[in-house]
Structure formats: C-alpha cells, structure tokens
Amino acid sequence: MYKKIQSTFYKSIEITKLISDNSFITNELEVCIKKIIFALKNKKKVLFFGNGGSAADCQHMAGEFISKFMKDRKSIAAIALTTDTSIITSISNDYGYEYIFSRQLEGIAEKGDIAFAYSTSGNSQNVINGLKKASEMGLTNIGLTGLDGGEMKKYCKNIIKVPSNVVPRIQEVHLLIGHIICEVVEEEMTKNE
C-alpha cells in the first residue's frame, strides 16, 4: 500500500512538473486569464460548466469568484451551470441531457461573457453543445481538458490540454490551474481597491 501511495504522489508531481515546464501551456494560461480579466472589467461574467468531477470544479471556481479566494474584495461575476437541479432535470426531461448547458447559456449568457468548459476527455456532448451555443452567441470559449482535447478543441479559441490520459491526474492539474486563475484574477481585479 505504501508503494502505491508514493507512486501516486510521484505521478501527480510528474504531470504538474511537465505542465509547469511547458511554455506553450503557461502562455495559453496567461492568455486565458487576460481574456477573463478583460470580460470582467467590461461587466461580463464567467459561466463554468462540465460533468462529474468537472462539475465540482465548476462549482469550486464560481464559489471562489463570488465569495473570495485569498482576500476580501468585491464579488466577481461567475455562475456554475452545474448546480441548479430543477433546471438540469427539467432540461434533461424536456430536451435531453445533452442540452443542459446550451439551454442555460441561451437563457442567461450575453455576448462578451466567458464560456469556461471543463471536460477531461473533451468529448462530452453536453459540453460540446454548450460551446457551440456559446460561439453562436458571441461568447469567448475557454476549455480545460486532457491530452488530446477531443471535440472540444474545435470550439475553444483557447484550450489548455493537460498532458495525460489519466482522469485523476488531469483533474488534479485542473484544480491547480483553477487556483492559479483565481489568484491572478483576484489580484488584477483588486489592484485599485
């Protein structure tokens, strides 16, 4: 058991090191953060969506934006499209689960908002439909995914692909990337406070 625990730590560290040493990924992350800051400074919002563990990441991110990350400050406009069970179940029942994000975006998104999609495979149909709807509506699409990027890469102008096919390792790095985004956005949004 001890060897398994150590091995898992090392695998996680290896992926984190791989991504931190990759200037393309770091530059892409910087571009994504700048787009988020631009949208927020122009009174727009960030709309997070994904499934399963990614849905939990969406709620985490929206919570950090709305409440706080590292310091007290004004709330930052964000919504997790993964939290309202009445909306999710009614859309699933009336239209199909594959439309739970696109239908919500249709109702609450505005041109210039950020559509921030999570999918470890990049192939979740409801995420793809959400990105398609976001593109039609003039949103800026940002994606977090795994090694290949799947279908998602076709619909995201900016996408960060974690160099792994192992879901837990991808999710660990997604959490780290999310925290980096929160910290930098919070710093930039509070510079003149």
Structural overview:
There is one protein chain. With 193 residues, the protein is α/β, with parallel strands linked by helices. The protein has 7 helices and 5 strands; from the N terminus they run ααβαβααβαββα. Strands 2-1-3-4-5 form a 5-stranded parallel beta sheet, with helices on both faces. Strand 1, helix 3 (53-66) and strand 2 (78-80) form a beta-alpha-beta unit. The protein is globular.
Low-confidence stretches: none
**Order of strands across the widest beta sheet?**
2-1-3-4-5
Net shape: globular
Helix content: 55-70%
Instruction: Round the Cα radius of gyration to an integer and report it.
Output: 16 Å
Count of separate DSSP helical elements? 7
What are the SSEs and their pairings?
Layout: H1 2-20, H2 23-41, E1 46-49, H3 53-66, E2 78-80, H4 85-94, H5 100-108, E3 114-118, H6 125-137, E4 140-145, E5 158-161, H7 167-189
Parallel strand pairs: 1-2, 1-3, 3-4, 4-5
Summarize the structure.
The chain has 193 residues and is α/β, with parallel strands linked by helices.
